[in-house]
Design brief:
The protein has about 350 residues and is of the alpha+beta class. About 20% of the residues lie in helices and about 5% in strands.
């Protein structure tokens, strides 16, 4: 009778390869689901950010009688702070609408550091914002020491892959709507680049009064009150998503008064030759796809698949398909066209 001889058991090479193959297949199956779950969480956070912006704008409206505006002093008119002087695009801008609503998003301590009587280059007021200012010029006007702008999580969509400060400026992925405005372009992309209803004809949102405006804001010192939105707050865009790398204006950050605005003139998610990102398809007309072609680069865009979040003037947030009818988008941008919007 043979004695049993104990020995160590183990996997054969074939068994090991089979196990590895099964694990690889499981990972391949699970990874898209994990990525989708993460993107769903990021979209939820982005939607929540935009809801907070809507609430902040309404609280600002309750306090000041209108929504937050881009500038307080008209860059085309004499500045009362400068004896005999006239403001310009780089002088005494007093920041953007996002500066104005800081106290309403629990950023009152940051807001209180701003000296709103300060004049001078945009990069020196009140914290560095102008993208082409040297580090030596980026000084806090209150102390004279370097003071780099603070990123605000509520101003950034978490889906943006480059983050809030890759450009050296604290960016924002949201912008106020100047609506269905007349916008300049370097080429002809076959789209209507002008305002569809003959209202608010101010070029690129330049202007300082209601008759200049199609949307709820301008690049000058004007913003709408609720009573100046006769189309209804649930039918008019207050603000929407942007991709800072795809516009030479949005790139400047949340403080810069000439940065965080967008028009509904461009179709949603219109492809642009963006900075630090792959270029769009070469067969597209280059003149209409550069980041400084404002008729298209200053539109609403997102890093989400298929569309863009917008906050309506009633404070609600909707995810709008990038395939929305172009005229319907213009109606949503225009606050007083008097036309029926329908489903979107």
């Amino acid at each position: 009778m043979k004695k049993w001889r104990g020995g160590k058991s183990g996997f054969t090479l074939i068994e090991l390869l089979v196990v590895i193959a099964i694990i690889a297949v499981l990972i391949a199956l699970l990874l898209p689901a994990v990525q989708q779950a993460r993107e769903a969480a990021r979209r939820t956070q982005c939607k929540n950010n935009m809801k907070q912006l809507g609430l902040a704008m309404h609280n600002y409206h309750d306090t000041h009688g209108r929504f937050a505006q881009m500038v307080w002093y008209d860059p085309w008119q004499p500045d009362p702070r400068i004896a005999g002087g006239v403001n310009d695009w780089t002088n005494g801008s007093n920041g953007s609408w996002m500066v104005r609503i800081l106290p309403f998003i629990d950023q009152g301590s940051l807001y209180n550091t701003f000296d709103f009587d300060k004049t001078g280059p945009t990069c020196a007021f009140p914290l560095p914002a102008n993208w082409n200012c040297s580090p030596e010029a980026q000084r806090n006007p209150l102390t004279g020491t370097p003071h780099y702008l603070k990123p605000i999580p509520a101003y950034m969509c978490p889906t943006n892959p480059l983050g809030a400060t890759d450009s050296g400026r604290a960016k924002a992925t949201y912008a106020i709507s100047i609506g269905n405005s007349h916008m300049g372009t370097q080429g002809d992309c076959g789209q209507n680049k002008y305002n569809s209803f003959g209202l608010g004809v101010s070029h690129n949102g330049d202007g300082d009064r209601s008759q200049h405006a199609s949307g709820i804001g301008l690049r000058g010192p004007w913003s709408a009150s609720i009573r100046e939105i006769p189309d209804g707050t649930s039918n008019t865009i207050m603000c929407g998503e942007t991709v800072p790398e795809c516009s030479d204006h949005h790139w400047n950050g949340w403080l810069h008064f000439n940065a965080s605005w967008a028009a509904t003139t461009a179709p949603l998610n219109f492809p642009i030759h963006c900075q630090n990102r792959p270029r769009v398809n070469p067969e597209l007309i280059p003149g209409c796809h550069d980041w400084n072609d404002h008729a298209f680069s200053q539109g609403f865009k997102s890093d989400h698949t298929g569309g863009v979040h917008v906050t309506l003037c009633d404070g609600s947030v909707k995810f709008v398909s990038q395939n929305i009818d172009y005229l319907t988008l213009q109606k949503l941008g225009e606050r007083q066209d008097g036309q029926t919007v329908g489903e979107f």
